[in-house]
Amino acid sequence: MPNDLQIARQAKLRPLGEIARGMGIREEFLEPYGDSVAKVKLGAVEELSDRPRAKYVVVSAITPTPLGEGKTTTTVGLGQAFSHIGKRATVAIRQPAMGPTFGIKGGAAGGGYSQVVPMELLNLHLTGDNHAVTAAHNLLAAMLDNHIHQNDDFFHVDRHSVTWRRVLDVNDRVLRNIIVGLGPQTDGIIRETGFDITAASEVMAILALSTSLRDLRERLGRIVVASDTGGNPITAEDLKAAGAMAVILREAIKPNLMQTFENTPVLVHAGPFGNIAHGNSSVMADLIGIHAGDFLVTEAGFGADMGAERFFNIKCRASGLRPDAAVLVATVRALKAHSGRHRIKAGAPLPPELLAENPDDVHAGAANLLKQIENVRLHGVSPVVAINAFPTDHASEHAAIRSIAEKAGARVALCEHFTRGGAGAVELAEAVAEAAAEPTSFRFLYPEEATLREKIEAVATKVYGASGVEYDFGAARQLDAYERQGFGRLPVCIAKTHLSISSDPNLLGAPMGWTLPVREVRASVGAGFIYPICGEMRTMPGLSRHPAAERIDIDERGEIVGLS
User: What is the pTM assigned to this prediction?
Assistant: First the structure.
């Protein structure tokens, strides 16, 4: 089978004006960026508002292995499959970060015959949104350090309280912890800081959750960067930086229109980190896509305990939209890994015993799938299990997953969209259409007025299966301070590993009877959530021994090679 880049170049692209007309968007609302990408003006939201509302479908997964289980590919494949059953769909996904593209992933546009094209544009600069986020974030960092250096009188920054680091869309571990201000006094004040990857920026989370340009501006102003010597929060508005940041992001707030290999419209917008942020594409894209066809299919990062939980409790609160169905991507290899009998390591070949036919191993890892089905139902949403088929799977193993899901009362479909495109996901499209046609009883996991501790404990006990929560002394003090400062009504976004439903990546399946350890709590006030940190969170990835960048090049015809 050809690689992803070779397949992508076989695509017969339709003019974007034609793609937009099929969504009900007139060409005057498009701002072309070359032939294959266009910005959609925000006026399209009002333009489409009187059209029927699409069925809203979120794609999540069981707890993945380090290799990922194909959520984006399934999202794209499902979007394509709807056309095979006479329905019109729009896909909404995050924009890939270039750091991981040049790191270990090599690309994140879907895969095989279910990908967004041109995949080179999607995986690289696209329309520059990520660069705009980087610039806006670092402008605030510069203005904060300038304020400390100039020592203005209207407030005094407690230098030890500064939480606003700088960002870069490159994996670079040596920038995680740095000292700035070295040199003469004119070069600033010496202090410790560091860099995060751009996807981890609160500005990126704000871009993804904003409902309008005005909302974006107000959220930027609410960003808390430090405290003064009296313990009061210092915001971007206090530093008079929010206006200039909004100017930088003026174009970036407009979603990007592309298409799939089979010409299904795709809105690509924003790429918030999946560990410390909500890990979902933008509200603006959804506000357009929800009136652009029969179905809007969007993707939530990582497993249902993380991406889907945040989709339900953070993104849906911001957008006001309510989901009609949820897809849970499951693979044979992931369920075998959750049996505890096999170890999968990124960059290493799969163990031969993992590839051997063994439906018993699939059943042994069933607890994870069952818990993630339960996590979707906790929110009153109908789950559909998508078996993402790999060439190394066996029919008996697919039958095992089907049996597990059906006994739990979930719809289930075998999917071959990677090799067959939309035709390979027709069973999934039919199952999702059935689920979405049912009456829904969507509900949030916790009310807005609950305390921050009550919200953390609701997620920990109901979604993760923990017996309780333990707070470090510093975390408890931070929670008390945020309640006093008026941030207690914000939802919570628990930062933890994605490799386990628990906070320990070594606990597989659906562990019970463990305690969630909260060692620190931070506030993304502009984005609109509090994030407790459980375990070590790497917000600036490093490169592997042989990063994907080593394989990426440009040939004599000027074409990119090596993306995958």
Answer: 0.95
